[in-house]
Structures are given as C-alpha cells and as structure tokens.
Specification:
- By secondary structure, the protein is mainly β.
- The chain has a domain at 20-78.
- The protein contains no helices and five strands.
- The N and C termini lie far apart (86 Å).
Length: 91
C-alpha cells in the first residue's frame, strides 16, 4: 500500500492563514476590550475601522487602526482624536 507523503508547512496548525478566522481586539474608546472574530469568508481584516455613535447630541466618530500581531491575530488601536474647528462660525 503506498504511503501518503506530506510536506511540512510553516504553519503548525496545517490550515492556510487565508482560510482562518481572525481574532481582533479593540483597545481604547467605546469599543475598548471588545473581541471580534472575523470569519475567513469575509477576507482579511480592514486596516481601519470607523465606529459612529449616534445619540441625542452630535454624532461621535472614532477610528481604529489595525496592528497585525501574526496570522489571524490583530489589535485595533484607537486613533488619537483630531479636533476639527468649524471655521464658518466666528469666535
């Protein structure tokens, strides 16, 4: 009976990184501590995620930038707030 020959891959799990779900942690802002599992069918995690909070007042926008830690693992860090002044109104 012939034996099946398998080559060793660098990935010890034997699963291609492109087909693995991604584990993503959010640090800072309103999503601080949230862990998201992004299914492989959705593709690679986005480099930037925008979170918009709508409430009784003006909308609040937070942006998170991805720092990959390895295949299928990353951390989204809150981008520092940029103060935008409305120059159409006199001080």
């Amino acid at each position: 009976m012939p034996r099946e020959v398998r080559e060793l891959a660098e990935d010890p799990t034997g699963v291609d990184a492109g087909t693995q779900d991604a584990v993503l942690l959010f640090v800072g802002g309103p999503l601080d501590g949230r862990v998201e599992i992004r299914e492989a069918r959705h593709g690679e995690p986005l480099p930037t995620v925008t979170h918009v909070h709508l409430h009784g007042g003006p909308k609040v926008v937070h942006r998170y930038d991805l720092t990959p830690l390895g295949p299928g693992v990353g951390v989204y860090h809150l981008r520092p707030q940029q103060v935008v002044r409305d120059r159409s109104v006199a001080d």
